[in-house]
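Morning run. Coffee first, then this:
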Amino acid sequence: MKRTTKGYLGVDAGTQGLSLIFADESLNVLGAGEGSYQMVAGLAAECYEQTPADWEQALTSAAIELRSRLSAANVEMDVLAIGISGQMHGEVLADNEGRSLGAARLWCDSRNEAEGHELTERFGVKMPKRITAARWLWTIRNQPDRAARTAHLTTPSGWLAYRLSGQWNLGIGDAAGMFPIDQATLNYDKKLLADFDAIARSAVGGEAVRPLRELLPTVRRCGEDGGTLTPGGAALLGLPAGIPIAPAEGDQPSALVGSLIAAAGEVAMSFGTSVCANSVGDRAFKGVSPAIDHFCAPDGKPINMVWLRNGTTYMSTIIEMFGLACGDESGDAFTRLMPQLLAAKDDCGGLAALPFMDDEPGVGVSHGGTALVIGLNQHNATPGNVAKAALLATLFNLRMGADILAEQGFLRSQIILSGGLTRTPELGQVVADAFQTPLSILEGGKEGTAFGAALLAKFRDKTITQTAPDWTAFLASHTSGSVRRFTPHAAAAKIYNRAYDRYRRLLGVQEQLQNALR
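And here it is:
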């Protein structure tokens, strides 16, 4: 006999697919479903697009799979609220009737790099090429007919929220990935909006251009009204209409929530193909740094993000190379070689590495492909030393951005580690030592952004059914399974400091090395 269980739905529309989880009122995840979609085929190398209808189909497929798995466990959902997370910085265009105007350009589409540099220079505020406003300026200039038909501009999570609720709302974190937020008003910066409109008008020779503020979704903070499930949205999910929806958020703010981070000084650090270190601030960052991007936490607090394009790919490539050299074709090289990395001395036997498999804007590397190891001799040429040097090179790139934040007095009190490195949790000690900061790995962190979306759904539900709790206290009242903690070791930190200084000197000649390899 099935038991009816009250709980929360968490949606995460990522770059490669969509996941959906159902968690009970205590945020125990009871089931999950997945849906897939592809990039639009046949585009140029720098172009990345997806079709919004594919996200909707993936949502329906994920909901069917979720219900099937819950049914097998004799669980029937009673959904109290829905949370939505999605890949940030996309450009989804819709007309006056709310119809999609074709494929959406994604965060990784680089056609508007020049517009990002232009807006940064004009605004005096960091406008990375990923930010939606830079995409929109490119569209105005290069697709004026499409721009003229646009009545709504949103992100992937904003689109799903619209299809479920019929409202053009967006969480403040995802909204900050579209256009800068004024920390005084916790809304889009009015002065910069006027500046943007002036640039847009000049871009089309004085022709009428709809003000950007009229196109952008309404900014909402966590706990505020994100609408309710419409009959059309209910059909997509197979649920009854009327269920409250939390303001849709971006994947980075949702990842912060999933790591239970809300207080200033806490850092969410995720390692994968790319690396993100998001830290909560108690004030806005001053000036512009190529290493630091800016958005907001779901409650509006400023977030500073150090982002690396070159994440664990270099280390992974080396480990796989050694695995193949040893005849390991099972794909299990990590299991065999990670103990050697962990056993390697902190100075890697004197080895140093540059990890650039691709460009790295934050540290001024405009040409990728300078991935190398130096200092090899007959004593230190071991897989463990080489793999550890590769990992430290990535950590040092990340630390350079963290040092810029430290120079402005931003705290770094704790790191919450997630992503690929947590498959070998002992690596948490290396990260803690390299950053000289206590580090934790949460057991429940593997659910990531979808878990964060479920937490946002619960917070929305609590603001409806009782007096709104404080956001920081709300997150602090939750757990994510067992926690593994690492305290920095002073001796290792001292060695890593010397290696870090050496690495920065090596980075200084990277351009010469790149030119020599041409």
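The CA atoms of residues 56 and 160 lie 7 Å apart. Good start to the day.
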